[in-house]
Amino acid sequence: MPRIINFITTVFFVGIVLVWAALLNFWFFIFFLFGSLFVVSRYAREMGKLKREKISLAHLLGKNEKKFSNSEIEKNRISEIFINFNEGILVIDENEKVSMINPKAKKILGIKERAVKGLPVIDLARLSDIRPIVPYFLSLNGILSEKINLKKIVVELSVIPLIFEEKNMGRLIILRDITRETVSEKMKTNFILSVAHQLKTSAASVKWSTKMFLSGDFGKINKEQKDVIGRLYKRNDALIFLIDNLLDAEKIEDRAYSYKKTLIDVQDLVQSAIIYFQDKIRSKKIKVKFEKPQQRLPKIMIDKEKIGSVIQSLFDNALKYTGIGGSMYVFLEGDEKNIKFQIKDSGIGIPKEQQSEIFNKFFRAANANKIETNGSGLGLFIAKKIVEDHNGSIWFESEENKGSIFSFTLPIEMVE
Q1: pLDDT in tens, 192-237
Q2: What residues contact 352, with CB distance under 8 A and at least 6 apart?
């Protein structure tokens, strides 16, 4: 009997253990199942994320590859433009070395060496044919259209500083071979000068002959004849003045305008101009007042003929565009550094929109053309050149229908 009880008891405990084991296995299975599902789900999510990142990366790589391809295309395009550009291009870096140079620049400069990149720009001075141009390469300032004569060619040079965020990154130099243009321009200038000289010779002969008629060298002439010959004399004189202006303008363009400076009293030149225009002043009944300096100004080193022509040109314009009964005021003053001439008129003035062009070659304001059809538009162009070549300045103030004030200064560089 005890054995039976022990057996039953044993079976009971074994059963309980088996039941608990079964239950534990069930919960373990459930835990394992849900854990596996969680892991699989997490894995699936990570794989999906990884796949999306892979797709994004592939898309990004595709875009970058496209950009790289486009940049390569742009790079090649810029390179082709640089190589085949019709002007010479030279780039100097911040270390004063040649950074880039295109074939056209090599041809202009006569550089045969292939390995120029990285060469110190100063080393280009060893090429005797282009030695005069090297100082321009070293210039830190901008240069626009500087004409330079080399041994075999004429070059127009421009230097553009390369500045990035206020930092000097070097210079861009543009070279243009203008030899053919210069030769053509020279031929044209020579032709104009030749024709102008012949015209002047003929005009001078006419002037001499008419003056003899007016002086009675060919016999007495009546009043009507004298008036006609007098008008002819004045028109011929105006023609000679126009030819002289044309010759001067061509010399200025050709940089062949020379000066003969001596010690001159500017006040004498002003008074001479007033005397020269007396007939015109009287005929137009214009009131002219000359405000002389309180003390005689010192003589200065100038070209008497050319500064005299500037004063006469300003007088002529003031008289020409001032109506009958108008007024003109002439001022002359000086300080320790400069002598200042000024002429003020009550004429037609200059339209505001055209004032920036007033010193340009051949330019005439629209309202001036209506009043005086004869004129070359060279007077102020030449005057500006003459004054600036004397280290002076010329400027004006004007208002249409209210008159103009033209002024210029000349430095007192040498006195008696």
Answers
A1: 778 877 888 888 888 888 888 888 887 888 888 888 888 888 888 8
A2: 399, 400
Q: Tell me which H or E stretch contains 302.
A: strand 300-302
Write the DSSP assignment of 335-402 as a string of letters: -SSEEEEEEEE-S----GGGGGGTTSTT---HHHHHH-----S-HHHHHHHHHHHTT-EEEEEEETTT
SS (H, E, C) 216-246: CCCCCCCHHHHHHHHHHHHHHHHHHHHHHHH
Find out whether 255 and 189 touch, Cβ atoms under 8 Å: no
How far is 333 from 356, CA to CA, in rounded Å? 27
CA separation for the pair 293, 334 (Å, rounded)? 8
Q: Which residue has the tokens 């950009």?
A: 67
User: Do residues 352 and 365 make contact, with C-beta atoms less than 8 angstroms apart?
Assistant: no
Is the predicted pLDDT of residue 358 greater than 80, yes or no? Answer: yes
Rounded CA gap, 86 and 176, in Å? 8
Say if residue 8's pLDDT is above 70: no
Comparing C-alpha atoms, which of 338, 344, 362, 359 is closest to residue 399?
Answer: 344
Q: Are 98 and 88 in contact (CB under 8 A)?
A: no
Contact indicator for 267, 292 with CB cutoff of 8 Å? yes
Radius of gyration of the chain (CA): 45
Token pair for residue 283? 């005929």
What the block records as the tokens of 229 is: 């010959």
Cα–Cα distance, 101 to 122 (Å, whole number): 15
Q: Can you say whether residue 397 is alpha, beta or left, with left for phi > 0 and alpha for psi between -120 and 50 degrees?
A: beta
β-strand pairing of 393-399 with 338-345: unpaired
How far apart are alpha carbons 348 and 372 in whole angstroms? Answer: 12
Listed in sequence order, the DSSP H helices in 277-351 are 278-283, 304-320
259 alpha carbon, distance to own chain's centre: 27
Q: What DSSP element (H or E) covers 263?
A: strand 262-264
Taking CA 167 as the corner, what is the angle to CA 90 and CA 79, rounded to the nearest 5 degrees?
Answer: 30
Residues whose CB is less than 8 angstroms from the CB of residue 223 and which lie 6 or more positions away in sequence, other chains included: none
Which residue intervals of 85-178 are DSSP H helices? 103-109, 134-137
Gap between the Cα atoms of 345 and 49, Å rounded: 87
What is the reported pLDDT for 72?
63
Residues forming beta bridges with residue 329, ordered by sequence position: 289, 344
